[in-house]
């Protein structure tokens, strides 16, 4: 025996655990760790160093152990390739190298190991294809190549391995077809190729493998239908084809698999009815057909008494029908999942026949009726998932008997009544979700008995009353959602015991009073939403956690200052304190909140300036500081907030100019600076805000012209510049803002010149206010085309000439204060013409009057004729026209609102067209 | 057993998602739209379904009760289809999705938007008919569907819309004749132009108005 050869092998290994310590020349080789000698002690026949913590490489020197029959180096940390020299070990029968970090290819030389019976090299980082030379290993019983990075197709030579019993190829990247030649491996008991990229059909010839017990082809891209020949695999215990693209029906031949224990065909495209019959599959324990396109009901003989069926998973199909009472025969059933199907009707009272059931998963169906009280007898039940059905009635008090129940999901049903106190007897409960029902009454005062409760969601019910103080004894509670109820009272001081609490949402209730100071002890809070309640006092107790991500306290009555300690929560992304009575200044420490995305401090009584430190919060997308008493200037560094979409600083006491730098906030959608003391010119850079939807600068002291660059804000739908001291002409470029819709308000400025006729292009504009300026000249006739206009105010300008005829429906107040304007609804232009043009002779005047009277008479006659026609037609129209009269009487009355009644009488030229076109047809 | 446990966990996963997003139907409806749209300009990035309501999402406007009143996504380079879930926004007044690359039909569920004042879907690639259900939009004033590939006839039911002020269905592929009754008596021919198969105003009582359809 060659001890020096073994020493060279040892020298290539790193041995931190010292298992090779006794491999030294002074000791008999046959007593070296891991070595087995032949009976005559002359040869090393076995070497087992499995799980010895070895690293290093497999030395080519192994080839010197020519008598070696078994080599086991599995479960170590070996790296490098499998040396081709191992091919020289002509006596080797078993080679175990699995669970190492070996890389490289499986060398062709391994095909020389003619006596090899077991080759297990999986769970390494081997790459490349399976060498076809492995087909020479005709004595091979076990071939394990799983969990590596092998690719290519499965070689057809696999069919030469007539002795093969176990073939494990799972979790590699094999592609191509499953070779039909595999049917030659008649001894095969286990074939697993799951988790590869195998494609094409499952070869029908697999049906010849009569010894097969496990067929595992899950998670490939196999297609076609399931071959009926699989029904011949009379020894098959485990058939898993999940996660492929198999289609067609489930072959009825599968019912011949009398030994089958597990059948998983889930996540395929199988259709048709379920025809798996437990009466023939007597050994079936797990039936998984989820996520297919199966239709119809559940066959009546799916379940037989004395069956072994433990798991039935049929979710995500198109199954329908009522709850299959036949299933109640399966008393062995432990898990039943019929979720996401079209089942309907009542839950059977005999549910308690399923006395071994641990999980009942019926969510996302249309089950209706009451929860049977017998459910209390299902003493093994751990998970009850009935959400998203149409269940009605109360939760039966018998539910309190379920001592093992851990998850109760009844959300999104129509359940009502109070939450039974007995529910708190279910001492194992960890999760309760009753969201979206109609529960009334109060939260059970004994809720504190649920010591294991982690998740409690009662959101969107009609619960009232206070939070029971004993809730504080649910010390494991992490998520508490009581929002959207009618709960009231103040938060009990026992909340301080909820030290695991991370998410607490109480919004839209009527909670009141100050927060218990001890809430400061809750250090794990990350999401708090108390908005829309009547909480008062300081918000300081909520600043104890430094892991806050969301704090939303909008619409309460909190007072006092903003705690600087909030700045400790470095991950805070949403801070909403709007609509409270907060005072003091914005803490300069907020500059540390660099993750802040949403800062809403609006509608408070904050004072001071927008501090320079906030310029660090450059992730801000919403900055709402409006309706406070903030002073100072609008900071120019806001221009560095590249993600800013909404900036509202309105209704404060800001002075100075509108900073030109705001033009750099290229994503700004809404810019509202109104009701401040801003002065100076509107910067032309405003035109760079090409995404802007809303620009509101009204009620400031702005001077200078309206910059024509505003035309580039093509997406503006609301533009308000009123109540400033703007001068100059209305830029005709405003006519390019064709998406203007809500309002164009330039009123109460000192604008002069004519109204640009281009405003007639604002076809979507619903309100136009140019009043209280010094606009002169005529109202451009193009404005008459603004057919969307509902409110118009041109009053108190220096306008003259005729009002476009289409405006005659607007009230007088839309035009008053322009002494030279005429035409409906003002005095007719003929009157003003008569008084103005004094150089006409009396005769001429008389002639004109006669002409006018004549034409008016003719027009009146025509109009009367048409009105009669319209009236005649109108009566044929459905009742809706009388309905509209009712609506009009309810509408908001604005002085310059377009009168809808007039509109109907004036816009009738289309009717004229249709009438005239009828004439020739009738002739 | 571990496999089964994992499987069960995976099965229940959607329910956990549901739990957080069912906060409000309107947010869900809008998020369904987001999922159906391609948004290369990332204008819908702020649409976080885990928020209490969609009122702080960009391009969404709410009223004081946190109900969605406006959806402004004109000119946003969006493609994809409209979703029936939009019909759940029962306080929506302005649905402005003009000048995008939207395709597919106008969901009939839009007819459930009982507060809608303005439907702006012009300049897209929408196809299929104008859903007759739009006649349920009793508050509708502005209906702009021009510049699409809409087919079929103009539903007669639309003439019963009591408040309709503007209709523009020009530049489509509509057929049949143009209604002239009800609220349609006041509309200009320009509202209907460039529909090569549209045969002109309907002729009361004399000819079937579905000619050429």
UniProtKB/TrEMBL annotation, chain A:
| Listed PROSITE patterns | LRR
> Residue limits of the Disease resistance R13L4/SHOC-2-like LRR domain?
313-426, 667-796
**What UniProt keywords are attached to this protein's entry?**
Glycoprotein, Leucine-rich repeat, Membrane, Repeat, Signal, Transmembrane, Transmembrane helix
Q: Sorted alphabetically, which InterPro entries does this protein's record hold? A: Leu-rich_rpt, Leu-rich_rpt_typical-subtyp, LRR_dom_sf, LRR_N_plant-typ, LRR_R13L4/SHOC2-like, Plant_LRR-RLKs
Cellular-component GO terms for this entry? membrane
- All copies of domain Leucine-rich repeat-containing N-terminal plant-type, residue ranges: 2-38
| Protein name, UniProt field | LRR receptor-like serine/threonine-protein kinase GSO1 isoform X2
Q: Which organism is it from?
A: Nelumbo nucifera
Q: Which gene carries the instructions for this protein?
A: LOC104591432
Automatic annotation (TrEMBL), chain B:
- Where is each Leucine-rich repeat-containing N-terminal plant-type domain found? 24-63
User: Taking every annotated instance into account, which residue ranges of this chain make up the domain Disease resistance R13L4/SHOC-2-like LRR?
Assistant: 71-171
Q: What keywords sit in the KW lines? A: Leucine-rich repeat, Repeat, Signal
**Residues in the signal sequence:** 1-17
Q: Which SUPFAM superfamilies match?
A: L domain-like
Establish whether keyword Signal is in the entry.
yes
**Protein name, per record:** Somatic embryogenesis receptor kinase 1-like
- The species this protein was found in: Nelumbo nucifera
Gene (UniProt): LOC104592791
